[in-house]
Amino acid sequence: MDSQTKNVLETLNHLKETLSALVRHLPSFEVANETALPFGLKPHTRSVSWIVEQVLVQSLKLNANKLGISHVAYENLGDTALHDVELGIGKRTVLVNIKTHDVDGRKNKNDISAVVKLYRAYAQDPNYDLFYATFGIKFVGRSIQFSQEAVHCFSPQFLPIYVNPTNDKIQAFYVHEPIIRSRKEFLQELSAKSTSIAL
Q1: Is residue 142 part of a domain?
Q2: Which of 10, 22, 111, 167 has a Cα at 20 to 30 A from 153?
Q3: Where are the beta strands (DSSP E) in 21-116?
Q4: Rounded CA gap, 105 and 137, in Å?
Q5: Full domain range(s) for residue 134
Q6: In the chain, how many domains are there?
Q7: CA distances from 5 to 11, 113, 127 (A)
């Protein structure tokens, strides 16, 4: 196992510990009051995912010192960035993409990333590493609750790769058995699975 692969594994463990500690202290929050939503909130993750993301990243910034994070940046990231927040963990800046799912919903494969964008990011910068953090939520009336047991982190480098031919996006279950591979092997796997990558 090369040093880059070891670093990814170590960062994954550290990131999971940090985000699990955050969720243990996160309160539930109301999306709207009774006047606006008299019949409650429909359990539809996509409708609240951006709000959940903002609650998470702002809570990370507020509690950075308690969590051992040296810096948190999310305000100036462009819409095309593959990550939602940058965290100073240990000696490195960790790029994190946040995903949300309903813990009471069906377990399906989810779109992870456009394969071409991910390939280019990894191929163009040998130091680039992206991490995904998935957070389980529950819909309770008009409120959102975070599930402490449903915080998971993974690296696209270790994904069991399936590329959906209809939209050319990598799809995977948020909770999966990782396939430990090198960065070079990851790029080879992406190019083998997608017809959109021009080598």
Answers
A1: yes
A2: 167
A3: 29-30, 69-73, 85-89, 92-102, 110-114
A4: 10
A5: 3-193
A6: 1
A7: 10, 20, 12
Tell me, yes or no, if the pTM score tops 0.85.
Answer: yes
Q: In this structure, which amino acid lies at residue 108?
A: N
Under the banding of pLDDT at 50, 70 and 90, the label for residue 199 is very low
> For the chain, how many residues are written?
199
Residue labelled with tokens 């989810």: 110
User: Does residue 87 lie in a domain region?
Assistant: yes
pLDDT of residue 198: 55
Q: Which residue has the tokens 């396939």?
A: 179
- Is 175's pLDDT higher than 80? yes
pLDDT of residue 78: 76
Dihedral pair phi/psi, residue 29, rounded to 5°: -140, 150
Mapped onto helix, strand or coil, the DSSP state of residue 91 is: coil
> For residue 69, what is the domain's CATH number?
3.40.600
Q: How far apart are CA 43 and CA 31, in angstroms?
A: 12
199 located within any domain: no
